[in-house]
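From the pipeline queue, job 12 of 40. The input is one protein chain; the requested action is below.

Action: predict structure.
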Amino acid sequence: MDNISRRALLTAGLGAGILVSLPGAAAPGISTAQDAGLRGDPFTLGVASGEPWPDGFVLWTRLALDPLTEDGLGGMPSRSIPVAWEVGEDAALGKVVARGLEYAHVENAHSVHVELRGLQPGREYFYRFRCGRHVSPTARTLTSPAPHETPAALAMAFASCAKYEQGYFTAYARLAQDHPDLVLHLGDYVYERRSGTDVREVARNRDVLETVTLAGYRQRHAQYKSDADLQAAHAIAPWLVVWDDHEVDNNYADDVPEDRSPAEMNDTAARFRLRRGAAFKAYYENMPLRASSVPAGADMKIYRTIPWGQLANFHMMDTRQYRDAQVSGGWGKNLAGRLDKNRTITGTRQENWLLEEFKNSTQRWDILGQQVFFAERDRNKAAGIDDVSMDSWDGYAASRRRITQGWVDAKVRNAVVLTGDVHRHWANELKIDYKDPDSPVVGSELVSTSITSGGNGSAATVDPVMAWNPHLKFFNNQRGYVNTRITKDSLRADFRVLDFVSRPGSPVSTKASFQINDAFPGLDPRA
């Protein structure tokens, strides 16, 4: 795979003000001699930022001379490499306000995480890294507003499900061109395996069909991060990330893998925890996450709340690591087990944390960034027959009811659930009891389609299940993402779609828009 140049990023969609040609002089405190062992540009995986707070954010990069080496270490020497960073107030970094030096260690696949403090709230900043004579692209990021402030508006985009083999990542480039101030990624950032119907082939995947080792997960992340369109999306704004299943294993549940043998379950669970630990380590190494998310073996805490002043809380959730095993694989009809009051998709600790966050919220909007379909979606129109997905919140009905009742009891002003996973756009109204036609609407769900997963799709805007699930208000089967504009008075969602992903360069358009008005739960299609 060719290295990605700054020119490639520019043509992928970022404005010229973001990518700046820099001189080759060594950064302060780093001599060129320290870099003598590097035979080329180590910034082939781009740069990223995330976790914005009022006085800082996380800056990330990972050094890789040859991203796809089989050992997952990117062709880097087996030693620590000094990396300088700097942050400025303009794209040319004419006024640098912070700089420092970190070391990229081989045990962390030469990744770098910088947690900044001491900056101004609600501000736009620019940053870059330098390693000897090599300089990274310059990228844009933001701090969040001060805790007491209510900004006029926030432009937030969210996306999910980018399978490299099933299409080109043009949607990421179009997202970058829309210039959001915050990006949420809701899972399936990478895929652990390739399917048999892939649109474009990648040579290294022909023999290794599923990733199970640390080297393999590192290599898979490097493959994705080498994509110019993904780099453009990371370079435009800070990201908040959570995983779904494919970052580890399709449809896994806690310690239970997709392929499970009941007779050998104890051994299977022990072996799967080793695999999960490898996947979690590679995930942290490749994401702009805080040190509080550093994994401890097979455990890694990624659920957290990120406030955006008094405008919004972003409750980023984990519906994989702590869930009970699915009642059955796939969909199921009238499976009473899904209604068990003790079943959980979040785990008790995360559920209690989220309910407390609802009680303590003073923000105008409480937004749940999570992975799987939240609203009830029954495939069978016959009365008395439930045919629902056991991998979604439908398979954990009591858990969903406790969360929904929790925001109602806490008098959350505006509850909005953001979802990925299903490779379709949906807009849904949320209830506590979906079987009661008089049950009031208590929130809204916005579901993003995939970046590429599922291939080109179709322009269909009606799914048959909507006829007997009246709370499901919108559907579309194209690829894309969702843009939102959040103010104190409303949240507007634009469902963005691409004509195709089987080749690069698709245009983007808005298929539909909805508005959620302050203190009026539910969807207003007149946006």
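Job complete. Residues 265-285 form the longest helix (21 residues).
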